[in-house]
Amino acid sequence: MNGHIHRFTSLFRWVFGPLLSAWVGGRYGLVPGLAALAVFLAGPGLVMLPSFLALRFFPPAPGLPAAPWSDLMAAWWREVVAVTRVFNWDQPWAENRFPDFLPERTHAPRGILLVHGYSCNRGLWNAWMPRLQRDGIPYMAVTQEPAFGSIDAYAPCIDEAMRRLHALTGSPPLIVAHSMGGLSARAWWRSVGHAPERIHRILTLGTPHRGTLLARLGSTVNARQMRDDSPWLLQLADEEPDVLGGHFDCLYGHCDQVVFPSETALLPGARVLHLPARGHLQLVFEPQAYDRAISLIHAAPIDAGVKPRPSAPRVESDPARYSQTTP
């Protein structure tokens, strides 16, 4: 179902859009026809632009200045490129281009589970999957169905994949999750009783851990759950143990046009990396994201017997741009 939605929207934009523009041109003249074509081709980028401009006036995460205009414009353009690639090729037409990599023998210490976000599918990770295979790291990438159902409904498919990867390597896997996928990972871990032996670490890319104002515009079940004051999010956080944040690495940026205010992407006690001039989807394609995942694959397991004191997130930043770090 998820792939059908993406194929329909892609066809509408690239086939029906130009046909409709040709009809408008034939009926009303060349200029209206070209204007209609420009709307179909440039529409997504123009629709996103106001949300990037608005970020100049939203408070950033603690310790970071407001994003400068140059960063916002760079993030907007990078996001246009990423959205065009993901929503017009990777997800509608190449969702299953790269199958899960589950070799009979592996020297990798553990596998990786890739979890996409809202209104996406496993094709989001097409830039990651061949690289992981070349690096000899087992992986699975799930498509969460139903696309617009409850986040809790995704726990069974995540659990099955986690079990398969654990059985393959003998070690609990690393979860890499984009956006809503980080909440899916938290909901899955709650469903298994927050058992420490089931999880290694979780790397989230632009996840609205404490909700996002943008979700107020959504009417689907999972969009309502991602609102900043949603009962679902409040209950999820209330039922989680104090040690939860120690299992997380949170990558985020204050040019993220989807998760804002940007500090909502942070969890207390998590290791946090700030990436400047990057939009929401672009976080998936950043070299720092892949490099962090590889480093976590080889990181020592977290001692489940140690109960860390809840604290503010430990923020790492690009030293050339932002030098202030939260301890």
Automatic annotation (TrEMBL):
SUPFAM superfamilies: alpha/beta-Hydrolases. Residues 306-327 are annotated as: Disordered. Keywords: Membrane, Transmembrane, Transmembrane helix. Gene3D superfamilies: alpha/beta hydrolase. Residues 174-214 form the GPI inositol-deacylase PGAP1-like alpha/beta domain. It comes from Roseateles terrae. It comes from the Bacteria. The chain crosses the membrane at residues 36-55. This is GPI inositol-deacylase PGAP1-like alpha/beta domain-containing protein.
